Recover the amino acids of this structure.
């Protein structure tokens, strides 16, 4: 399988974490979201994923899966061990709810295209962008903090899909200088993930296309 991904994209990090937790190895095909105006917008990548976003997972039979939630659900269905969703339906719904808060209610508001539109079309300056990022991430983290448990990963001793979403979102919050010190449960999950081999392997800094970051490129 081939994973088309960008090293510090949160959605790519999610899929890498799910793959690593399940012990599945893939060939990573880096898609640079900034260089040359963004490789994701070029015809070569649009032929893989018509939406022009990462991640995409190309299966060995040539089928291409897009959208991180769909890819993660596919991995769970086809490679059920170890499970990333609890057996109990109520708990499954709670895990999926945390994933949806981050995937549906937070991430789209700070995707690079959203921020570019805020700046380019709506005249937002740096201070306005920072206030926007802080508001939406803080709202999302506040809800997640109230929904997850008091020990272990988000919903117990083993990572679930909830952690697969939380950990990249915390990485993004740190990258965007959004304060997270008021979320002790989320910080606990972050610390556990930092010591977990699968999250270490999936981390942006472990990727073949990882770059040294300068201030000028910090949000790209
Ligand atoms: N809902 C999609 C979002 C994918 C997405 O927005 N990916 C970002 C990187 S985290 C991207 O490709 N941005 C480039 C662009 O919008 O041009 C998913 O979860 O896969």
């Amino acid at each position: 399988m081939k994973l088309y991904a960008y090293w510090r994209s949160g959605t790519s990090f999610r899929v890498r974490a799910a793959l690593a937790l399940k012990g599945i190895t893939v060939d990573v095909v880096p898609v640079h979201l900034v260089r040359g105006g963004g490789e994701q917008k070029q015809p070569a990548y649009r032929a893989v994923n018509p939406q022009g976003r990462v991640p995409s997972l190309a299966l060995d039979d040539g089928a291409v899966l897009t959208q991180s939630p769909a890819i993660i659900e596919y991995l769970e269905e086809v490679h059920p061990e170890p499970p990333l969703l609890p057996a109990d339906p109520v708990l499954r719904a709670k895990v999926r709810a945390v994933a949806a808060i981050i995937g549906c209610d937070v991430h789209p508001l700070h995707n690079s295209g959203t921020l570019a539109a805020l700046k380019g079309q709506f005249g937002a300056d740096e201070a306005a962008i920072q206030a926007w990022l802080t508001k939406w991430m803080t709202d999302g983290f506040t809800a997640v903090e109230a929904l997850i448990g008091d020990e272990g990963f988000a919903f117990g001793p083993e990572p679930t899909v909830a952690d697969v979403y939380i950990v990249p979102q915390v990485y993004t919050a740190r990258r965007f200088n959004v304060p997270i010190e008021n979320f002790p449960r989320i910080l606990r999950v972050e610390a556990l993930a930092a010591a977990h081999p699968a999250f270490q392997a999936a981390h942006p800094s472990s990727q073949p296309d990882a770059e040294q970051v300068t201030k000028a490129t910090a949000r790209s």
